[in-house]
What we know:
By secondary structure, the chain is an alpha+beta fold. It has helices at about 10-20, 100-110, 150-160, 215-220, 255-285; strands spanning about 35-40, 45-55, 55-65, 80-85, 125, 130-145, 165, 170, 180, 190, 200-205, 210, 225-235, 240-245. Strands 1, 2, 3, 4, 5 and 6 form a six-stranded mixed beta sheet that branches. The chain has a four-stranded antiparallel beta sheet with strand order 12-11-13-14, with helices on both faces. It has a two-stranded antiparallel sheet with strand order 7-10.
Amino acid sequence: MADISLSDAEKTFIVHGVQDDFRTDGRTRRDYRPMEIETDIVSHTSGSARLRLANSDILVGVKTEIDTPFADHHDEGKIEFFVDCSANATPEFEGKGGESLALEIANALQKAYASHRAFDLRDLCILKYHQCWKLYVDILILECGGNLFDAVSLAVKAALFNTKIPKVSAVQEDGGNVELELSDDIHDCTRLSIERVPLLVTLCKIGDHSVVDPSAEEEECASAQLVVGISYSESTDEGFVTMMRTLGAGSFLHTTLKETIKLGVMAGECLNVELLKVLRQEERLGKSSKDVYGFLK
């Protein structure tokens, strides 16, 4: 995370604000900062998205290739996450400064997506034992403004929503050989079912309370952090925790931990609903109604 130097007076001000449920930017302990998201912005990818959460800027591209299933998961596809922290995001990322954080975020995503109930890899299977789709999810952190776990997971879900997989049929011939037939129509694609794809929610313990969407300054004041993966289906109104891990040197009391998890589940469910609403609206409007800016076009 970005290393920000704060005086004792500044830290006290932040802690007292959290205590009174009035943070320095006017939010309550349960509020997220405004965010902007755009999909289908990187060419030569199967899906892409860019998300900006306050000063955190994340770019995600998804590429697909045909691979062989694992022997012990013969009816499943594969998904791998790669995180790169730009040296321009924060001075701490210069050289190899961002490698440990990048690996930590990638591992958190991999663990959160491990459950079939959250992301069913069987949808990526082409022919059992022989062929499957493999998704490479490339994540670039362009700017660091706090709460990277949440921002990255939101951008990844948006990119997966935008991902189009070519329609392929597999035929097993004599001798065990497999022949793949790819549709000639570039628009003949399938979409991933991402309703239950989990989001990561970071909760910072500041004083006696926990807050969602911590800013970089609030992260400096946190004694401990809890990252939870939340999968939620709006159609069935079912949600569950897919992963959980603590960060920092501090700890949570039993009662505080229960309240913190409850807050994380509530935030994760709301984020899932609002994100899908925005993505569906953007797709419905279409790119022709949007003005496109920036270096990515």
